[in-house]
Amino acid sequence: MASLNNSDDLTGELTITLSDFHE
To answer: According to the lineage, what is the superkingdom (predicted)?
Structure first.
């Protein structure tokens, strides 16, 4: 899983995961 900033692991990971699935 890609991580931009280690600030919000849940929100960040969820957003990245959703974006990855959407693209």
So the answer is: Eukaryota
Question: Per-residue confidence at 6, pLDDT binned at 50, 70, 90?
Answer: low
The CA-to-CA distance between both ends of the chain, in Å, stands at: 14
Instruction: Give yes or no for a contact between 2 and 21, defined as CB atoms under 8 angstroms apart.
Output: no
> What does pTM read for this prediction?
0.21
User: Over 60: is that where the pLDDT of 12 sits?
Assistant: yes
Largest Cα–Cα distance in the chain? 23
The structure tokens 């931009």 sit at 4
